[in-house]
UniProtKB/TrEMBL annotation:
It is a single-pass membrane protein. GO terms for cellular component: plasma membrane. Coiled coil: none annotated. It holds the Pfam family YajC. The keyword Oxidoreductase does not apply. The chain crosses the membrane at residues 6-23. The keyword Metal-binding does not apply. InterPro entries: Preprotein_translocase_YajC (IPR003849). It comes from the Bacteria. This is Sec translocon accessory complex subunit YajC. Belongs to the YajC family. It is found in: Cell membrane. Keywords: Cell membrane, Membrane, Protein transport, Translocation, Transmembrane, Transmembrane helix, Transport.
Length: 101
């Protein structure tokens, strides 16, 4: 019985670590993967290098995303290097001119 009681603190510490550190990180990674899958034109992102930009071209099956980091300055960024999606557009931006009524 005493061996079980001496092992109990280790189990308690692991349970606390799991619920305070491991599980929230797993949920955040899952959320980021979902955001990267639904990345659209007009979304503001932050790369692993700290570069903030606006997505200009994105395809679901492509590993690269075209990002505008300054006016008329576009770079190709690997989708895996995007660490944060700052703002997400509710609907995709449309390049076509809107019909005048």
């Amino acid at each position: 019985m005493s061996s079980i009681m001496s092992f109990l603190p280790f189990v308690a510490v692991f349970a606390i670590m799991y619920f305070l550190l491991i599980r929230p990180q797993q949920q955040r990674q899952k959320q980021l993967r979902n955001e990267l899958k639904t990345l659209r034109r007009g979304d503001r992102i932050v790369t692993a290098g700290g570069v903030v930009g606006v997505v200009q071209k994105s395809r679901e099956d492509a590993a690269e995303v075209e990002v505008e980091i300054a006016p008329n300055v576009r770079v190709m960024v690997l989708r895996d290097t995007i660490t944060t999606v700052l703002t997400s557009t509710a609907k995709p931006a449309n390049d076509a001119a809107q019909p005048k009524k």
